[in-house]
Structure formats: C-alpha cells, structure tokens
C-alpha cells in the first residue's frame, strides 16, 4: 500500500485546511485509517482515526474542530481542519492498514504511512 498526502500549507489562526490522502496498491489490506501529526521536538500523536468497524476517534485537543472522512470507492481519506490554532502546527501523516477488531491499532505487518504534509498555523 502506498499513501500520498497533500493539502498542507500556511494558514492564519482561525482558518481552515483540508488534507487528502490517496491510497494505492493493495487497498484491500486497509480496514482502518487515521491522521497523525508531529510538531518539532514532540512525539507523533493521533489527531483522528476511523477504527475497524467505523468508530471515529478524536483526541480532546481537536474534537469539534477536525473531521475525518473516508471515500472507500475512491481510496481517499480526508481531514477537514477548522478553527486552526498555532498549536496545530506540525507535519501531518496519513496512516492506514489492517487494525485489530474494533480498534485503530494496526498490525505491524499492515501498517502504512504517507510521506507527511506540513501544516503551519501562524499570523
């Protein structure tokens, strides 16, 4: 599976961005998708996921502002980000693969990452 993320950029606080992730290859190996971000000097963290079975997961830091969606027919995953804050700055990564039942935790053998797209929130 190959993942190609796009849509990052520079946006002012309060603005919006929509990230896209295109999946190709053995997409039948995907039953869960997610977006992660990594800020300078910090660990990579989950910002949104669609778990196996369809449950959607958001951390409190983005709940109500970010929306993850998936178009299975087009092999696309999206992250709509509204009311962006400077602390949302980071490199955003698309993640997809085969998850344990009812979770977003991917089996190591079926854990795929995109190349990352930079999101900068600054005035």
Order of helices and strands: EEEEEEEEEEE
- Class by alpha and beta content: mainly beta
Gyration radius over CA: 14 Å
- List how many beta strands DSSP finds: 11
Q: Which stretches of 5+ consecutive residues score pLDDT under 50?
A: none
**What overall form do the CA principal axes indicate?**
globular
List the helices and strands and how they pair.
Blueprint: E1 2-6, E2 9-11, E3 17-24, E4 32-38, E5 45-50, E6 56-57, E7 66-71, E8 76-81, E9 90-99, E10 106-113, E11 117-121
Parallel strand pairs: 2-11
Antiparallel strand pairs: 1-3, 3-8, 4-5, 4-9, 5-6, 7-8, 9-10, 9-11
Short description:
With 123 residues, this protein is mainly β. It has no helices and eleven strands.
Written description of the protein model:
The chain is built from no helices and eleven strands. It is mainly beta. Strands 2, 4, 5, 6, 9, 10 and 11 form a seven-stranded mixed beta sheet that branches. It is globular and about 40 Å long.
Features:
123 residues, mainly beta, four-stranded antiparallel β-sheet, 0% helix, 54% strand, globular
